[in-house]
Amino acid sequence: MSCSGGSSTDISTxxxxxxxxxLRVRLPIGENYRHVRNLVDTHKLHTICESxxxxxxxxxxxxGTATFMILGNTCTRSCGFCAVAxxxxxxxxxxEPQRVAEAIHLMKVKHAVxxxxxxDELKDGGSTIWYNTIKAVKTLNPDTTLETLIPDFKGQMExxxxxxxxxxxxxxxxxxxxxxxxxxxRIQAKYWRSMDVLRYLKENGMRVKSGIMLxxxxxxxxxxxxxxxxxxxGVDVVTIGQYLQPTKKHxxxxxxxxxxxxxxxxxxxxxxxxxxVESGPLVRSSYHSEKHVIPGYGKQKWEAxxxxxxx
Length: 311
Prior knowledge:
With 311 residues, the chain is an alpha/beta fold. The chain has a single domain (23-310), classed as Aldolase class I (TIM Barrel), CATH 3.20.20.70. 39% of the residues lie in helices and 14% in strands. It has an 8-stranded mixed beta sheet. Strands 3-4 form a two-stranded parallel ribbon. Helix 5 links the parallel strand 5 and strand 6 (145-149). Helix 4 (96-107) runs parallel beside helix 5 and helix 5 (127-140) packs parallel to helix 6 (157-166). The protein is globular and about 50 Å long.
């Protein structure tokens, strides 16, 4: 399939598009899945796997991994793509960092992912809880590598700095979509403010990651430009996946992007100079994230694939 651009129509009013066969998802089953399910419930933890209706929850939980969402499960923002509830959040739970650390310890995972809702009502944007959680996880789980998928903290770099000072192995902040669609997709966010956060992270020694969704009306040229922007602002790892409408109240899918097109964006990303590009219909930010920690791994794998094809 050739890589054609998406429609430029208003993304909130397009008719429903039929889901293709390549988007089949396995139901969550198995002993490991039930074990993780029990730990999450027992420790009263929030996971973006559930709140975000992630299509890979069965696979990841079946392998004994999960992405924990701190600072509650109610967000102060109302992004058009996100299934997380919007409203007035509960008070900050200062015991949450230790509970998350204990759950990760009980799960015996080698790599964990933390994310959070936006807490724009807090002066520190929730960055103190972020710092405390990272430190608690690393204290109790010294051999566990950690990725942190952070909000933009409204561009207040003193709050971003708290995450930097906690020294997670990877810091991720998702750009989500191309510049033109940002106002519709991420209503309270700004494209270049997110780029500033990513650049700040890189300048302060972090391994930096970001992600983008396709199928919201973007063109091929806009996707490629976004990949260039991410690379130019210090991003090492990029994930590219298909947007799936969580409910009828959320933005409509404009187009289901064929796997061949995702493969093309992977090639383009590596040719630009990105260190790791994860691209496919069911790819989400934390999918295979344990591999994203390793500098050079993705590019070496890609080069080996190309060498074998030549042979």
